Amino acid sequence: xxxxxxxQKGNGIGEVVxxxxxxxxxMLDVLFLSRDMEGKRELEDFSVDPKSKNNPIHNxxxxxxxxxxxxxxxxxxxxxxxxSVHTYTIAGIQTHIYGLTQLAPLLTSSSSSSSxxxxxxxxxxxxxxxxxxxxxxxxxxxxxxADHYFPxxxxxxxxxxDANSTSPPPPPAEPSSPPRPALxxxxxxxxxxxxxxxxxxxxxxxSSxxxxHPHHHSPNPAHAIDMYxxxxxxxxDLALLITYIRVYLEFHFNPPVPMxxxxxxxxxxxRKYISIPTIRDNIVLGVSLGGHSAYLAALHIPQVNAxxxxxxxxxxxxxxxxxxxxxxxxxxxxxxxxxxxxxxxxPPSFMSMLASTAENDGPSMLLAPPSxxxxxxxxxxxxxxxxxxxxxxxxVPPRFSKGFLDRVREGMKDGEELAGTGAEVKEVVFEGVGHxxxxxMGSEVRRFVARVVGR
Length: 455
Description:
single chain; 16% strand; ten-stranded mixed beta sheet
């Protein structure tokens, strides 16, 4: 599948691009192609073939299932396999750090007094979709790092001339310019997922296909509050990991040496201490559930300077009301005793919490959603935002992010709070694409990361 640009509004900091998918016999990269889903349906229509292996929630967030994509060592291009991954448990969270082997020579070559200072560090933080694990993000992490460290071997090198690209490639560095930042990637399991799963039902939706469908499950009436609390918690976890990551990098490159009798002779030559340079960029990439959390991170984690929301939503109450309507769960207030048609599915206390407009920088501020009405867009000063969505997405329709994105674009006009701060927003809508992280979206992500890191 390939994509042709069919419409574009604006140029640069507030642009909207629409692509139409077109058939192609050449699949560019298996990493970014979604499984073919036959007979996409509205959520309330579960009259599917019980023998079908299709996910009843519209192929929510999955790449092509491929035997080589079962583990963390996913090889599509030789350079992807060269990207290292190390795992540390930080704040009780298994944190997978990609690219430390590639970073090492950049640090050690700068350890002498005559060497130039080491480059700053950029980190791509990734947040996986619902019902997935950290492994889902490994392909895109490896691809972005391969683009950075092995550009001549990458099929989507950041300076390729691509019809889908709306941003110029970064200019070559001037001889006197500081070195280009090093790039690391990080993934971890979202709360109640993977190694952190405590209650499988809490990850599931309001309704289920009837038995004997293979995806039948008990209904989860707490879906709205379960899902929000999970990705809110993920944003809190992300803020915590950003706080501690430099400490663990320092520990990794300067491991403690037990002082014993044999150590004294082994260390006859003093070991050179490796300093960890500044972390210049914290780029957040989230898909679906992770895309919801990416919005929160962009707004409420000061260290985050760029964020990519892939098939995520900026107006959570509107999204949940949409799902309740799809599942035929809305009811007149006089029948439920609740003040609105959402009944107990969206408790008033939950809605009041989401309507918070406090502008604290602390973790508690992560409770406030980026809704179009209460969004403190001033928190996006100097930040870059990329929003990718499928026009045919029935699970997370892109229209529910329109109010928020319009508010951000309004804030970038002359005289408004974001004007002149370096804030940018780019929205790309893919026609003919549903709730999937597709080939064209993967290419957009890789170009965006390369541009932020190479600026």
